[in-house]
Amino acid sequence: MGIPMNGNIHAPTVPSGPSSGGAFRDYSQISMVALMEEKERIEAELSALSSVLGSHGVNMETPLTTPDGFPRNDIDIAQIRTIRVRIIHLRNDHKEVMKYLEKGLHDHFASLQRAQGATATGTDPNTSTAPAQRPTATGTSTTDAASLGTPFAKVNSVVPRSPADQAGLKAGDAIRKFGNVNWLNHERLSKVAETVQQNEGRTILVKVVRKQDPGSGTTTELDLQLLPRRDWGGRGMLGCHLVPL
């Protein structure tokens, strides 16, 4: 006997806002270190849950009904719905955590900038006006350089004559920024893959740190222009392999 379907069983609706810990958690009241730990925890759970969906051969958008509107009998619909709802909750939490991380970083670097200005002028950092950004040796302002944060990925290998090779990427380069992706939002490099897919045939700015001499520890910061494309003669659109740090 058929079961009438009164709703879309593969499109769960959940309220927005923090929820991954069960009870509401006020992210504005926890430290930057705790926020970073929460970010990593959420991303690890999202990755694990996505793998579970993949093991069922589905994703967040895969229909759970047959073409005539009945539940599919080849998959565990109840488990998939539960996982999807959990993923939506976690994504909401991730947005909240990122919002407070970015605010904390902004406040921190603004404070550093005031302190630098006070040191240079001999004034009180609590009352002085933030000075203009000063260029560093690499041509990047002090605030911009700091806001890039630590590198989040390393170039493991580069295929000769690939887009990555033509852009100047080399094995061992540490990536600080890939388009709009940085150490705060790369989500275990999934956002890098997203950026590549969305920018085929368009230039992506990649900021890297390169060791000049392994023995000396001297590094150079470089701004590279990377053009993802499929017609270069190899696999993928970049021709390089990145690993998370």
TrEMBL record:
GO cellular component, one term: proteasome complex
InterPro entries named in the record: Nas2_N, PDZ_6, PDZ_sf, PSMD9
Record keywords, A-Z: Chaperone, Proteasome
Lineage: superkingdom: Eukaryota
Biased composition (Polar residues): 115-131
SUPFAM superfamilies: PDZ domain-like
PANTHER family, per the entry: 26S PROTEASOME NON-ATPASE REGULATORY SUBUNIT 9 (PTHR12651)
Protein name: Probable 26S proteasome regulatory subunit p27
Gene of this entry: NAS2
Low complexity bias spans: 136-148
Database matches in Pfam families: Nas2_N (PF18265), PDZ_6 (PF17820)
Similarity remark: Belongs to the proteasome subunit p27 family.
Annotated segments matching region Disordered: 1-22, 115-148
